[in-house]
Each structure stands twice: as C-alpha cells, then as structure tokens.
Amino acid sequence: MSYRSNQIDKIKQLMEFTQLSEKDSIQTLKATNWNLQLAINSFYENPQRPDIISVDGTMNLCNDLDIEPTQLEFLLLSHQLNSERMGEFSREGFINGCTQLEADSIDKLKKKLQTTLINNYHSDEGFRKIYNYAFLFGRQTGQKSLGLEAAIELWRLLLGDRSSLLEEWIKFLQECHNKAISRDTWNLFLDFVSQVDMNLENYDSEGAWPILIDE
C-alpha cells in the first residue's frame, strides 16, 4: 500500500521517537487517524510499556540527536524534559517538553537544542536555572547530597570556562574534603566564583560562604 508524503513523514517521525518498527508505527498512526501526537501518546499509554523512557531509550535518543550523555546539551535537554533521574525521561515530561519547544520530530528537537536551549543557557537567568537543576539531576536516588565525583564532573561541565578558581577548588576538595557536596555548598560556590576575583583580593571572610570555602 502506498502512502502520501505527509504520512510517510509521520511514520518516520514516530519511528524516531519511539523506536517502533515501520509496521507497528503504521498501525499506531492508522489507529489514531494519522495524528502524530495522539500516536506518541498512545505508545506511552500502552499498558504493556512502562511510563518511563529508560537508559536504553535515552541512549537511542542521544544517538538520534548526535549528543553524548556527558555533554552540556544532554543536561539542557534533561532540564527541558523535566528528567528527575539521570538517563530517564517520563512520558509526561518528554511530551510536555517537546510541546513547549514545538518539536514534533527528531530533526526539530535537534535544532531547538542547538538554538533555543543553548541561547537560554547563555543568559544569566538560564545558566543559574541549569546550575541549580544540575545538583538535583546528579544526585543518586534517595540522597540529599551530591557525590563528590559527580559534583566535580558537573562543575567542570558548567564552570570550566567561567572560573579560573575551579581547579584549585577541586584540588582542595579531593585532598582535604573527599565527601559529598551539600546543596548549600553547591549553590554558594556559584555565588563565590561570580563575586570573587582570581587573586581573592575582594574576598569577604564575613560573607555568607560555605565553611568549606572559608577553609
């Protein structure tokens, strides 16, 4: 059976988003009268499937978007899709995040990632939102603090080109602290590197800095 060009596009898009076979994608689209959004909803509402895009699905998505889970782009995408755990996306978060971006295909999502999300990140407000989110994103389930190695990776990702003090801070943590990072320390370190010069001439020891920084 032949299909119209717009139907072929929808088949390809549904296959990209869900990893369904061509046959299953066609059946799902037919069942929803070729409404792509309803077809995606139907896929995730299927009781035989979990309501979560797990690690395998996330890796497929990264491959489709030509990004790695260790890249900044993945963190930005995770924030946009309201991921509460590294490497997983909920159906609701995924659909709402893509809808806000008006991205109903992999190509559109890739473009929005490289334009809208990157541009938002480079604003002061956007950067702080991502920085605050990174602490929650990087924690292990059930933990209040962020593991030291995870914190270091995220600091280098977010502050590597913003702070000349970062490597000295990391060296101190590895040699003298070697413990998980609290949310208070995470948040106030950003304020510290934003306000204090490299030579520390304007450092105020009476300021509201974490005890670790005073050390």
UniProtKB/TrEMBL annotation:
The keyword Protein biosynthesis appears for this protein: no
GO CC terms: nucleus; plasma membrane; ubiquitin ligase complex
MF terms in GO: cullin family protein binding; ubiquitin conjugating enzyme binding; ubiquitin-like protein binding
Keyword vocabulary terms for this entry: Ubl conjugation pathway
Segments forming domain DCUN1: 31-215
Family matches, as Pfam families: Cullin_binding, UBA_4
GO biological process, one term: protein neddylation
Protein name in the entry: Defective in cullin neddylation protein
The species this protein was found in: Rhizopus delemar (strain RA 99-880 / ATCC MYA-4621 / FGSC 9543 / NRRL 43880) (Mucormycosis agent)
Lineage of source species: Eukaryota, Fungi, Fungi incertae sedis, Mucoromycota, Mucoromycotina
